Amino acid sequence: MGDKTYIWLTVGISLLVLTSPAGAQDEQWLQYHSEREAQQIVGDLGSSHLEFPSEKPQGLELPQFKGQEQLFTKWPSPMVKSGYLWIALDCARKQGQWDRLFIDSNGNGHLNDETPVTAYRTDQSSAYFGPVKVVFEGEDEPLTYHLNIRLYNVNVRSRGLHVYSGGWYEGNITVAGVTKHCTLIDYNANGTFNDKSIHPEQCDRIQIGKKESQNTRFVGNYIEVDGVLYQPEIARDGAYIKLTKAEDVKFGNIRVPETITEFSAGGENGLFTLKPTKGIGSLPAGKYRINSWTIERKDEKGKQWKLEGRSFSVRGDFEVTEKTATSLDVGEPVIGHVRARKIAGNYEFDKELRGRLGEYVRLTSSGRSVGDMYRMQAKNKEGTFEKMYPIPDQ
User: Fold this and answer.
1) Domain end point (choices 136, 165, 194)
2) pTM of the prediction?
């Protein structure tokens, strides 16, 4: 049976101001970069997951393979007319780990004219490729894009590809006369940089601020910079961005428990972070999914505690309208869960905190995770074993 954890706090913080005078801007061009370790450089980078169908492709012209068995899949991208590019995996020897990758890099629908990409690292269950170059057909000239690809091959039932974007755009732009650094990230690794969605995993990312910052936000209809709300226009291929001051935006209110000190939500309008005043915040009208909530307080000894709820499912979806405030049932209480599993005659226990809507909750104290600060008593039916697993010393 799970334990309930309560944190109570009442804080009043002024509402974020989103609009102020600013002028429209022209297209501002960015520079393309690609790296094998793109995720370590840009930080907020998602992936797409590809499986291998059992049937082999029909009508696909193939190269001369070396291995006894090949794997085939399609990488989906709206940047090609067919909507996808073929990928084939081969082995440099007759048997062994798949360590050669063929991709339809020119989008002609065949693989027989492609040069194999050799894995730069392999182990018993994985092979890593990248950055793998593909070329899209642009309006004026060809467009270069890169992928980083990891094959995982645990067994026949657990086999597939994790595909990450290996390229991104960045550069300095001017916002209201101030120089800022802008980074565009193809978060869902489909070849485009302007995807908007209520699903966070299908929404691209943008960062405007200091170059070293990795505080990215969702690409959307709006973005707030220095307290000003803009409407961004982002090139499909990520080459440029244009910011225009948002005019005549319709807003609506949300209502959360007054214990919530910070709240964020995202969707096609973008990602917004609010510090509610007495439980009230304001967002542009539209559909959203809760991104996170935070509750902070100090105990009687002055020690800082924080609860953070993240990773919401469709249960976190809501709509903001002008007429009526939208009430959101988030925050306390949170529930402690314990799961047990038997491995090789021993039992392992996993514990976690969950919120009202099924979101994962993290508890920290003075910046340190206190995920291990739970007390659990274990004993068997026969009464021959009983042990208390205490809270560790802090």
Assistant:
1) 165
2) 0.85
